[in-house]
Structure formats: C-alpha cells, structure tokens
Request: fold
Amino acid sequence: MRVQAWLLAILLLGGCKEEKKNLSGEYIYRCSDEYCFTWRAPQRLTRAAYPWEEKYRGAYPKITKEFFYCRGNFLNPPRLQRREGREPLCFRDCHGGHGLPLRGDREFIYPCLLEILNYIQEVTEKRVVITTGHRCPIHNAYCDSSRYNWGSKHMIGAEVDFYVEGMEALEVIGVVRSYYEKTFPFADDEEFVTFKEYTRPGLNVVTPPLYNKEIFLKLYLADEGRDGDNGHDYPYVGIQVRYDRESGERVSFTQEQAQNYLRQ
Reply:
C-alpha cells in the first residue's frame, strides 16, 4: 500500500514539473525597424433610418398606407348588442394586422387622405394621430354594430378618423380647407375649394359637417362618436372620400362589396 502511494506521488510531481516546463514558452524577437500598430480613435456612427422613420417635410414620419392597417385584436372582450324582445347579438373582434382593401392586385388607400394628413403635419409641425384607418367587416361591426355604421367607408379605405396633438379639432378643419385652397388654385376648381354645410335630421354630431366635391368633414366633440377605436377623450376629425380623382367617379359601394374588401 505504501509503495503504491509513493508511486502516485512521484507521478504527480513529475507531471507538475513537465507542465511548468511547457509553460516557459519562447522569447519573441523583433526587427529594429518594426513599430506597434497605431489604433485610430473610435468614431460613433449614426444608424440609418428605416423607411417609416424618415421625415417628410417636417418633424414627423411620412404617413403611408401602412398607418391605416386594421386595429382589431382578438384579445378584446366580446361586445353584446341588446335587442328588445330578442336574444342579444355577440360581436367578437378580428385578429388585426391583416392587409388593406385591394385595388387590382395592390393594397389601396385613397391618396387624398394620405396627402391631407401629411400636409397637416407639414404646415403645423404637429403629429397626426390616426385613431381609425381601415376596418375589416368584422372589426367594423365590433366597433359599432348599429345600422348607422354598416356602410362605413372605413371598410374600403376611403375614411379616416384622427386628431392632431396640441391642436383644437376646429383648427384642424381650417388646415384641411387651406390644403384645398393651395392644391386647387384655379377658377375651374371651385367645387374643390368651396365647402358647404350638410344638415339633415338624425346626425350623430352637433357641429354641422362640411363637404366639397372630394371629401366630407365631420367634427366629433369629446362626447361624440365614441366607439371601439375612438375610446379616447379627445375631440377628433373624420374625413370621408366622396370623389375619386383617378377614375373621375363618385366613391360609393354596396354592402356586398364592403364585406368582400372590394376583392371582386
């Protein structure tokens, strides 16, 4: 037993000496004209902006059709519509994040809406907050299941609800009107520049809406127009497209077209 212990000790000591010998290394020799590499001072580089971060004639990113994507969320709780003498209807929200209405084979939002919103940001240097852009039929019914809303132009990319940070909604309407005065300066464009009041019984706003040839403007006060997308406390503006410059036709649709995203 003692012999085995001595042998083990000898092997361990021999291994340590061998390891120490291997770690001794070799000297490194340099030539007389060699010099150390000089490191440049590090420089901070600015990250390139993503397309949605690029500024558009002002302090805020350009508003594109991607800002109009449906805001549905399947985690939203079901909504019940009470009906006198009948079972209530239950509406569930969509999954959200899906595409926009199609024109041909491309996603489509009426260009005048994008032009107006970007113009507002440009001249006011304040951020436009879109509360409702496109709504798919499921999300549209979930937000407002009343008969008044079945024909919402949100479903075809021809309507937007928004407010401007730090501005009264009535001021925003003035900026929209100035957009048409600047865009259509000729006498032949009088139908675009001139806005008229729209009055009829049963309107859901106190302030009379305005309209010209292309758009319909509505001002919603803090206690008006509240639905699934506009649950905030701010007065806001709604714009509906009435006339399509590209086709030269009135913007209208059937219930079947709206329910089908105009994919016919």
User: Anything to note?
Assistant: The CA atoms of residues 73 and 95 lie 5 Å apart. The chain has one domain: 51-259. The first helix runs from residue 2 to 22. Residues 51-259 form one domain.
